[in-house]
Amino acid sequence: MEKIRLGVSACLLGEAVRYDGGHKLDRFLTDTLGQFVEYIPVCPEVECGLPIPREPMHLEGNLDDPRLVATHTKQDRTDRMTQWAQKRVVGLEKEDLWGFIFKSDSPSSGMERVKVYNETGMPVKKGVGLFAKIFMDHFPLLPVEDEGRLHDPKLRENFIERIFTLKRWREVTTKKKSRGKVVDFHTKHKLLILSHSLKHYQRMGKLVARAKDLLLNELYLQYQTLLMESLQLRATPEKNANVLQHIMGFFKEQLSTDEKKELLEVIELYLKSYTPLIVPITLIQHYVRKYDQPYLKEQIYLNPHPLELQLRNHV
Ligand code: SF4
Known about the structure:
By secondary structure, the protein is α/β, with parallel strands linked by helices. It has helices at residues 27-32, 44-47, 78-92, 130-138, 153-174, 179-194, 198-209, 216-232, 237-248, 257-271, 278-290, 294-297, and strands at 4-9, 37-42, 57-60, 67-70, 100-102, 114-117, 123-127, 144-146.
């Protein structure tokens, strides 16, 4: 299997690049996700020319436009970091990245809730690290997360589902383009898209329906934008329950009264957070095999990422 290419804050891979000469090795990223991912490490502070070890830094000033300042000597590193980051993101275009995992809380790499100190010296946890901001502005639709948020099973499942979906889409775009390939991709991803956004599910359905009226490049571009937008919206238990009930509709004629009752009960238990998503999904997979449902067999929603990651055991 071709590996997914993700950018990552270098210290999360165990590289000793932090201000104190240490690292922040994250075993989930290296040992578990690492089986499927090829990482492109980036350490903004070292790559912009600062030494190891170095003086720690923080953000201060305006929340929207903070300065990156050395904590003791007060040396301002903002211009050095900004100029380097603006060039680095252009260089990263060639890396064909499918997402980025940032180090949380860092004034350079943190993607949200980074401390910004105001004029009274009080921190407000609403900032974004300088490199992370420039990266996200440059690649607005790429999936991004930080390692702290990835400890939350729901955010983890969502991020990994996005990068695996993007991987499948990239495989479509690297082959000879055709309207049929977009239609085929969409058909297999319909329920997955519905689990994120009804609005996008409807808009993408309309787009695919008029595929033959559009120039091929225009179709690919519009479809990709809608796909990435839709995946940015989180699949909640309510949305998943809606998809599961929708799936039940395909078995209307075949499920026995007991089987219908059992499935409805399992969906209800999932909705109330008594069971993880894997429970109704497993029961549905069983019925898909038993009643040989060709449309559902093809649905990526029922199998969006490798089982080894055990993501739906926790959401
Ligand atoms: S948080 Fe970012 S800048 Fe700091 S050591 Fe890690 S990769 Fe480098």
